[in-house]
Amino acid sequence: MAALLLLGCLFGTLSGAVPITPNSSLTFNGVSYTERFSKGDHHQLTPRGQKVLEKRIDLLTIVHHRSVKTKEALASLAKEMLSEFAAQKAVMIKTATVPMTPSHPPEFLLVAALTKAELFEVIFTRLTLTNEGAVVVSFSHREKGRNAGHQMDAWMTKTAALTEHALLTWQEIPPPSSR
Fold first, then answer.
1. What is d(CA 85, CA 8) in angstroms, rounded to the nearest whole number?
2. Structural domain of residue 41, as residue ranges?
3. 105, part of any domain
4. Could you tell me the CATH number of the domain that includes residue 82?
């Protein structure tokens, strides 16, 4: 219990955000995203011009794990996600751990690439702790068609470092909705 209180005092909530509600919008990396699907603590948002999830190019997914309250449980969740990526035959591009400090929660970064026929998808995932539990934020980008591999290479060269930085520094992550 003392560990939970310590985490709550150290990390609090991420600043200025409100819970996601139907059709709500938020800004990530300078782009406005609108809620397209929500079920419990799982939310999927797309840029305003990409209303159909199956046809979208970019996707922001936010999942709250209220029961994950410790750095050990967060590490276990990161390992589970790595196993899921492996099961999908994803190529891991990058993994990183940000250790806990007195003023910052522990965090994990996972960057994976998935390919299917003429579809390439890169997923940037951040796992962090708040006083409400863990939150997993994923940003994914897709390229489709015969030249999808070349298009993805160009997108990654131009955008990967900026996307990673935006994800790791994003402070307006919405808290879980009240139950």
1. 30
2. 2-169
3. yes
4. 3.40.1000
**Is the residue at 113 inside a domain?**
yes
Give 137-156 as a DSSP string: EEEEEEEESTTHHHHHHHHH
User: For the chain, how many structural domains are there in total?
Assistant: 1
Whole-angstrom distance, CA of residue 7 vs CA of residue 158: 36
- Residue-wise pLDDT tens for the chain (179 aa)? 223 323 333 334 444 566 777 677 899 999 999 988 989 999 999 998 887 778 889 999 999 999 999 999 999 999 999 999 999 999 999 999 999 898 889 999 999 999 998 899 999 999 999 988 999 999 999 999 999 999 999 999 999 999 999 999 999 888 887 65
Check if the beta carbon of residue 91 is closer than 8 Å to that of residue 84: no
Q: Is residue 46 part of a domain?
A: yes
What does pTM read for this prediction? Answer: 0.87
